Amino acid sequence: MAADKTFEIPEQIRTFAEKSVEQAKKAVDDFLAATHQAVSKVEASSTTVQSGALDLNKKVLSLAEENIASVFEHAQKLVQAKDPQEILKLQSDYLKAQAASFGEQVRQIGDAAAKTVSSITEKVTKG
């Protein structure tokens, strides 16, 4: 019978993956910084009606940032995994956590959207 062998991820591949994750995170962080800057510029020139939409945009951007941070944290854990079993456990745990947070994020966006629509409707009807 063949000896019980475990699969180990070579150090070079792990190092390459960690660098790739770091580079991708930096690119996304730069993109988010530019997005924040753009939102700030729009906010400075917005009217009262647009302020509700800006609040909604900020909420969505905030949740997107949380999700991106979670993805990179998960990616870091994956590239440090020692074997396929650990990868599967990490992936399973991550998917459970994401499923749990998805419902909360949908609720938050729904609440923000309802508040925005209500605010805009009120301002438009009052003239």
Quick gist of this model?
The protein is an all-alpha fold and 127 residues long. 86% of the residues lie in helices and 0% in strands.
Would you kindly provide a written description of the structure presented here, covering whatever features stand out?
By secondary structure, the protein is mostly helical. Helices cover 86% and strands 0% of the residues. It has 3 helices and no strands. It has helices at residues 11-44, 48-79, 84-126. Helix 1 runs antiparallel to helix 2 (48-79) and helix 2 runs antiparallel to helix 3 (84-126). The longest helix has 43 residues, at 84-126. The radius of gyration is 21 Å and the shape is elongated. The N and C termini lie far apart (83 Å). The mean pLDDT is 84.
Highlighted features:
127 residues, mainly alpha, 3 helices
Question: N-to-C terminal Cα separation, in Å?
Answer: 83 Å
Low-confidence stretches are none
Alpha-beta classification = mainly alpha
Largest sheet: none
Radius of gyration: 21 Å
DSSP strand (E) fraction? Answer: under 5%
Task: Give the helices and strands, then pairings.
Layout: H1 11-44, H2 48-79, H3 84-126
Helix pairs in contact: 1-2, 2-3
